[in-house]
Amino acid sequence: MGKKKRLIIPVFIPFGGCPHQCVFCDQAGITGRSALPDAALVRSTIEAYLSTWEASGGKGPREVAFYGGSFTGLPKEAQAEYLSTAYRYVKEGRIDSLRLSTRPDYIDPEIAAGLVGYGVAVVELGAQSMSDAVLKLSGRGHTAARTRKAVEVLKEASISVGIQIMPGLPGDTQETVLYTVEETITLAPDFVRIYPTLVLRDTPLDAMFERGEYSPWTLDEMVAVCKKAAALFKAAGINVIRMGLQPTGELTAALVAGPYHPSFRQLVEGA
Question: What is the pTM of this model?
């Protein structure tokens, strides 16, 4: 019997389309990439994954995922180049759909309609928090209202929505984190990701930490609040597809402080 698991082909776009320097962000350090890929690299990445998948008899859904940055904030020409390169495989029947990540304030009806035209089926929104005070302290440059509007627009376009949240941001308390969870539940996303806030080298949050202006949460504190968050999402029927950052050598090298554990999800579930 052939394999049935899902194939996700990752294409990383570090800082792509993002004019903001959020206090926590070091995408180049996390992904190990600092330059934007060109269309040739996108093609070669897709071909490499597909050839291995097809040779092993893979039969499950196949998806190209543009991770990192704020995809819909890229110049329109760059967006079209990436999407058209990947969409060719959709038209050929070798890929089923596309997925991308972006900011809530970079979604509107025109953008959503364009994404549908290129076979984009899933958009992940980096909401991070639903507290306007926390968003402001974190340098996000958007409000919780923009997240609510973006979810509405995507759903009207029949695009599945994922929401990423980051407990432990500047100004966060257990109460604001659980408020974010409750507000996220009211948006009824298709899934969520929970990324505990970490202090990464050479970020504004690193400078705040060095000046004593930010105290990272302890691992025990983060596990406790994420246990409550996970229970609330489960009760609402919303799948938490990831808790904690994937352990990589780049992340380990960039990590300064914070509630990091390579098996964070297992800690939460064990609690």
Answer: 0.88
Distance CA 70, CA 102 (A): 4
Pairing relationship of beta strands 191-194 and 160-165 according to DSSP bridges: parallel
For 181-235, the pLDDT digits (tens) are 999 999 999 999 999 999 988 888 898 999 999 999 999 999 999 999 999 999 9
Burial class of 93 by CB neighbour count within 10 A (0 to 12, 13 to 18, 19+): exposed
Q: Which amino acid is at 39?
A: A
Which fold is adopted by the domain 7-195+239-244?
Answer: TIM Barrel (3.20.20)
At 129, which amino acid appears? S
Dump pLDDT digits (tens) for 47-72.
999 999 988 888 889 999 998 778 99
| DSSP character at residue 130 | S
Q: Domain locations in the chain? A: 7-195+239-244
The H or E element spanning position 182 is: helix 174-186
